Structure formats: structure tokens, C-alpha cells
Amino acid sequence: MNNPKPKPSSSAIISKSRRTTGLMIEQENSHTLRVQHDPNKILALVGFVLMMGLTAILAYFQTPSAFYIALFLLVSIYELTVLRSICCVLDKQTGQFHYFRSGVFGSRYDSQDVSGSIPDIHQLEMKRRVKYGGDKCQLILLLDRNERLPLSDSNLGFGECQEFAEKIRDFLGSEIPIKVID
């Protein structure tokens, strides 16, 4: 099977709720399903640049609020490092899957490359977090050896996550359970 590393995408995927999401599930043919997540880094980069400028101005005038903005900058840097592209190809014809998650800032550092057998897939997990403004979910593939492979970031709406999980389960077969965990 060829290496399904994420291809750069030029357009965002729009979900049924009309929100922009970076998760796409595409059935390439009757036996191959591609799950791909390309995070939207533009907003994080714009926020980072704006906060850098504001921090510099406030620090120049020695304003006490510069500390809080510097703290926000550190959080922004952290957020930029956790935004990763993910690609998982499931091939029923060969009975294999291939998973690839890019490293920090798209590098090889802390990247993950896993291949395995489709029967090793134990369940799909919807990891739910209650946040201000509604529940947010992350879609995770759980393997028999208790290895968790995230298929998305943790900012999917519950309905979107459930829709994506159902598509994957429909492809793999109804014997793969979907479990919601808090």
C-alpha cells in the first residue's frame, strides 16, 4: 500500500452545520476509505502575530497587562504545536490500515506512522469535553493493543463527530462499536 501522507488542502471542508472543519472522510472506491484531518492554522497564526504586536506595545509602555498577553502568547505557541495533519487509509481489500500524523509544525519531530490489520481495530471513541458554548469531541481509533490513534482534533461538534464515526463504522462493519467517553 502506498504511503498516504496528508496532501496539503487549499480549501476548508464545510460541515452540514455550516461550520468549517478540517476533517474529511472520502471513500475512494468500494474497498478504500481515507480519513484526513487538516487543521486550520491560519486563525492561530493571525492571533499569534496580533498578540506579539500588542505585547510589544504594552511592554514598551510598561503596562502590567503585558504579563497576561505574554501568557496568552505562550498558550498560542502551544496551540500551534498541537495542530497536526492526520491521514488514515483503511483498505478492506488488503485488510490493512495505514495511519500517519505529522510532527510539530509539519516536521518529522514527534510524528506518528502506524500500519496494522483492520481486525486490530477494537472500537471508535468519541472523546467528549464540555466547554463553554457546547460540547466538543475528538474522534479516536482504538486498537486491540490499547493504542489510541486520534483521527481529528478535539474541536468537533458532537453531531459532526457522531456523523464521521458512523461513516467509518458503516465502512468497517457494524461489529465495530462507537463509544462516547467523557
- Please report the number of helical segments: 3
Helix content: 25-40%
Using the alpha-carbon principal axes, give the shape: elongated
Mean pLDDT, to the nearest integer, reads: 80
Distance between the termini: 35 Å
Main-sheet strand order equals 3-4-5-6-7
How many distinct beta strands?
A: 12
Structural class: alpha+beta
- Cα-atom radius of gyration: 19 Å
The run of helices and strands is EEEEHHEEEEEEEHE
Q: Low-confidence parts, pLDDT < 50 over ≥5 residues?
A: 1-20
Strand content: 35-45%
Largest sheet: 5 strands, antiparallel
Secondary structure layout:
Blueprint: E1 13-14, E2 20-21, E3 23-29, E4 32-37, H1 42-60, H2 66-82, E5 86-91, E6 96-101, E7 112-117, E8 121-131, E9 134-143, E10 148-150, E11 156-157, H3 158-172, E12 178-181
Parallel strand pairs: 8-12
Antiparallel strand pairs: 1-2, 3-4, 4-5, 5-6, 6-7, 8-9, 9-10, 9-11
What does this structure look like?
There is one protein chain. The chain has 182 residues and is an alpha+beta fold. Helices cover 28% and strands 36% of the residues. It contains three helices and twelve strands. It has helices at residues 42-60, 66-82, 158-172; strands spanning 13-14, 20-21, 23-29, 32-37, 86-91, 96-101, 112-117, 121-131, 134-143, 148-150, 156-157, 178-181. The strands form three sheets. Strands 3-4-5-6-7 form a five-stranded antiparallel sheet, covered by helices on one side. Strands 8, 9, 10, 11 and 12 form a five-stranded mixed sheet that branches. Helix 1 runs antiparallel to helix 2 (66-82). The longest helix is centred in the first third of the chain and has 19 residues, at 42-60. The protein starts with 12 loop residues before the first strand and ends with a strand. Residues 1-20 have low confidence and may be disordered.
